[in-house]
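User: Second chain of the day. Same drill as before.
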Amino acid sequence: MQKTKKHRKSITNKTSRIIFVLLFLSAIGSIFAQGTPGLAFTSINNGTAYEVSRGTANAAHIEIPDTYNGLSVTKIADSAFYGYSGLTSITIPNSVTNIGYLAFYSCTGLTSVTIPNSVTSIGREAFSGWIGLTSITIPSSVTSIEYNPFTYCSSLETIVVSDENTYFRGEGNNLIRNSDNALVAGTMNSVIPDNVTSIGIWAFLGYTGLSSINIPNSVTSIGNQAFYGCSDLTSISIPNSVTSIGGWAFQDCIGLTSVIIGNGVTSIGIYPFQGCTGVTSFSVDSDAAVRAFSGSTSLTTVTIGNSVTNIGATAFTGCTGLNSIFIPNSVTNIGAQAFRDCTSLNSIFIPNSVTSIGLWTFRDCTNLTIYAEAASQPESWHEDWNYSNRPVVWNSADMILLPPTNLNSYVSGYDITLTWDAPLSSIVPLESYRIFQENNLLADEHDTLMFIDSRSTHGTYNYQVMAVYSGGISAPITTTATILPPRIVLNPTENFDFGEQAVNNETEQEIGIMNTLGGVLIVNNITMAAGSSQMFSLVLPEMPINIIGGESASFVIVYQPTTIDSHSGVIMINNNTDEPVILLQITGSATNVSDDDIVNMPIATELRGNYPNPFNPETVIRFSVALESIVLIDIYNIRGQKVRSLLNDFVNRGEHSVVWNGRDDSGSAVGSGVYFYRMITDDAVFVKRMMLMK
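Assistant: Same format as last time:
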């Protein structure tokens, strides 16, 4: 019994000595520890290392020691310096391998930090809220970063990653993970490269100065809260490559005014645009995204694409500013309360494609009139779909899907130009026009008010034009156009006699060729028939000549007799009319008359025409005056606007010509088309037409 007591006393003494030694060593360790006083250290990794936190430290500069109690300090604890706004600088030793999540969260006095090459892991939001941080360098040692460690760093412009780091890369001022090409963290100067496949959770969280960002087609997912709080972001276009949008992805982007979501989105988190109070227009082509704007009171216009089949329950509940929304005929289901409390909505058209409408879909839409394509309420609609008994106009497609107006046709050669006016009005958005010739579809999704149909032969053609709406197609409006066959008329119209001319005197006569009906008159060639006098020659334009209905061309006959005799010839004009060869007989005679006699021969005041016609780039206008006179020759376009003054001068009796080079008075080249030239003398006015073809 006495031995046992003695043994117990011995054990107690040994225990006391051990405790004393441990306390002594702890005291000695505290006395000789490096770093800022007041820091707190906690044993980790089964007592083999320490993590550090602020403790009672209150210095502006924190220096973390590399050891404590003879063991390495390897981690900066989670939330270690959370909210320490008085901290202005920090020294992290090479012993640290892990920076915990929220470690320096909202240390607003910090503007820079050097991450040592020992660090392998950085926790989420570790440096969040450093509003003065402009640049950060990620060393080669880092292998793990959990989400964006730099959220709310609204001045961050540059992220640099060591070239030796094989886990991450810095590209376009972004931090990108190599294993999956995910953008972990962006900056204010981000340019997202087209090899990025996802924008990670919190990637741009709180970047209040970010005003624009381009999402490339390589991106397939946008993480939760990816752009949360980017209040200066004004517009966003989500490409068709994106299939998933995370919850609250664009929450509180109060500067955002328009959103376009592609048809690739198949999954969307809760309230991705909550708090986007500036959004006024929304374009969506995906079923998943139409749930996004419940309660968006600033939203006024929504465009739903033709890929949408389902408008989910409460999709636009409480969108009190919404005054325009159009349901395409791809939609088959409208969920319960989808438009509840849309008090500014005045009208909506429901196409026949909608087979299901849920409970209270239009409840409390106090100003709404509903137009339905159906003749009566389908049984598949919920019996209380129109809980507030809003007025419904059944079988109203013809009232809504209005056709175009004022359809006209114009023929030029074998081209038929159709013009029309837009429908008078409609509550359904007009998308395009559909054009038929008889039962042949000429154009689908045509988006202008004019269409040119090029035919190859004359005939009568019937056309129909219909308006294509997001909710259906209007009844057609019709017109008829007739292309007449070409008809050739010469000017002069009969055989032409040069009369008496002096030997060796050269005389020219322009011959006009006009197509007086329609289509295109094709003059293949103009030749002198065999046996014609060699005293005649031809000056021809380039063959063949194409002359549309109502237009004309010309060629020149030159008579230069070298012998005293009578001369004759026949000109053959080959063409594509029912009279394929037109014969023009020409005659003339040569005498020994004097030049004085030639001068005294009668001369008429006339505008003879221009050659060539059509022309490019210049043409010669010939005219004659019987008496000395002031002559004005001006060029006008088809709208009657004067484009060039060619002549305004005193002209002697006789034959004359001027050249127009296809330019206006300023020296600028005019465009192709029909032009008129007018000659005014003391006692006459003449007008002719010509065509510039470039």
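Helices lie at 2-32, 397-400, 595-599.

User: Great, on to the next one.
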